[in-house]
Amino acid sequence: MKKILFLLVLIVMAGVCEAKGSQDAANGNTGNTENPGTGDKPITLGQDDFYAYFAEIPPVIDGVGDDPCWAKAQWQDIKYAWMYQSPRSLPTGASVASDGTIPKTDDFSGRFKVVWTADRLYLLAEIIDDIIYTPATTPNQSPEKNDCLELFIDENASGGSRTAGGGNNFFTYHMNFDGVNVADWIGSRNELRNSHLKYVINKNDTTHTYVWETEIKVFNSSYPLNSTPAVDPANTLVTLTEGKKIGFAVAYCDNDKDAHSKNSSQTGDRDHFIGSMFVKGSTDNERNSSYMNSDQYAKMYLKK
Ligand SMILES: [Ca+2]
Ligand SMILES: [Ca+2]
Ligand SMILES: [Ca+2]
Ligand SMILES: [Ca+2]
Fold first, then answer.
1. Which of 190, 220, 241, 295 has the most crowded Cβ, counting Cβ within 10 A?
2. Number of H helices, E strands in the chain
3. Separation of 294 CA from ligand 3 center, angstroms?
């Protein structure tokens, strides 16, 4: 009888612990150092690193973030000014704090969430932008001159240049505002890679709020650099697993038709460029490094 009672107590305690773990995860109470569950050594999150949670049911890609999987995902801010010297400027009302961040303003504010399944990442980005302007009409020519969401993905968080290791080390997706076109800067030109992302933008021109819901294929460095095959080449599509570390960043090119730029003669160029992680550098060109090198990407850890 004593044995049975003891076993019952153990079972109840295990249930309480499991429930608390789930609740902590749902509340984001993950702490800065912990083991994501793979048995590897504990993770120490860097300043802009974060966990992406597993989606039991993938979201419906419709530009509406009411899918259950988004409820437990944590927002990450897009709050670092990457380019703001002449002719570009900071969003109206913003100034750069000592940690490189800018406050949310009506001119620009942005945040995003990421969840994952075994074969896809999913991104929900909420952008507030006062003036929408998209003068570059050819999708693979200067997409950064439009209002444009950019995604940076280094699948194995290796860092390095675009061709470091002799392959396709990372991807720099420029998502077109006026249609589902995805331009990837490959070193000398933009390659259209529309098959890599699927997205819908829910546009509210009254509140100036734009929700980009996106499904993302994740490829490894053996994916061809200079072409986009109709069928994903064998062994290039990555199976995602708990504990995986991915180099990841989100940025927004904000063109306001020069309404906010320092030099109005720069017709057609972006006014601001804001990213999701701190980048080193004292000039626009030094801070605008993520399209050429993935060393500074934040780390995203996949977690269940
Ligand atoms: Ca949805
Ligand atoms: Ca703006
Ligand atoms: Ca890589
Ligand atoms: Ca704009």
1. 190
2. 3, 16
3. 8
Exposure on the CB side of residue 153, measured as CA atoms within 13 A: 20
- Picking from 17, 125, 49, the residue whose alpha carbon sits closest to that of residue 302 is 49
| pLDDT tens, position by position, 199-258 | 999 999 999 999 999 999 999 999 999 999 999 999 999 999 999 999 999 999 999 997
pTM above 0.85, yes or no: yes
* Nearest Cα to Cα of residue 253 among 111, 122, 135, 147: 147
Q: What is the CATH number of the domain that holds 94?
A: 2.60.40.1190
**Domains in the chain, number:** 1
Spacing, Cα 107 to ligand 4 middle (Å): 8
For the CA of 255, the nearest ligand: 4
CA pair distance 192, 287, nearest whole angstrom: 25
Structural domain includes residue 230: yes
Instruction: State the distance from the centre of ligand 3 to the C-alpha of 169, rounded, in angstroms.
Output: 4
Ligand 4 centroid – CA 252 distance (Å):
9
Centre of ligand 3 to C-alpha 235, Å, is 15
Structural domain contains residue 72: yes
Is 25 part of a structural domain of the chain?
Answer: no
Q: Give the range of the structural domain holding residue 219, as residue numbers without chain letter.
A: 55-303
218 alpha carbon – ligand 3 mean position (Å): 11
Span from the CA of 37 to the centroid of ligand 4 (angstroms): 41
